[in-house]
Amino acid sequence: MTIIDDILNRSANLEIPYGELRNIPEHRPEMLLIGCVDARKDPIGDLGVTKGRALILRNIAALIRGTSVAPEQRETESAALEFAIKVMKVKHVAVMGHTDCGGIRAALQDIDFPSIQHYLRPLDDIKAEVKHQGGSLEDQAMVLEKEAVIMSVKNLQSYDYIAEAQAAGELSLHGWMIDIVSGKLEEII
Ligand SMILES: [Zn+2]
After folding, report:
1. Cα(175) to centroid of ligand 1, in Å?
2. CATH number for 101
3. Claim: this prediction has a pTM higher than 0.85
């Protein structure tokens, strides 16, 4: 049995309560959570957030590129932010990095996959600084994981409407690091 078989079998065997399905729940999330694609993480479940309360944007290393990057290089990010903040009017946006992040290690190791390299380019300046400080790959990764969260929160603020909403007290920005083993959150920014 492959994972695909598991998914399709489960779906085929779902008992559907037709009456309840007519009651489509209202979509009124309170936050946007930006997390990494890492398969070991279930961003919502790991935080104990119930269905319906948080929109999720996942990408490699939970990066936000910000407006210094050309619009066509951040379409998914820009659209998700616009939807969450302007349409759904969420009150919180959180960037959540995690320990043992493969994307952060890929940045430090300059892996030879062109799309991933290009994607990780916003980390170049911080990465150079972290490498200059020295230490083991593990030590450098721990620093860069946190610095990447700080960078992404700052890049959120490069969107005028986000900075304005934050200044007006209508939107809170958060930068978190979750321990992949314990599930504990550390507030970074
Ligand atoms: Zn990751």
Report:
1. 15
2. 3.40.1050.10
3. yes
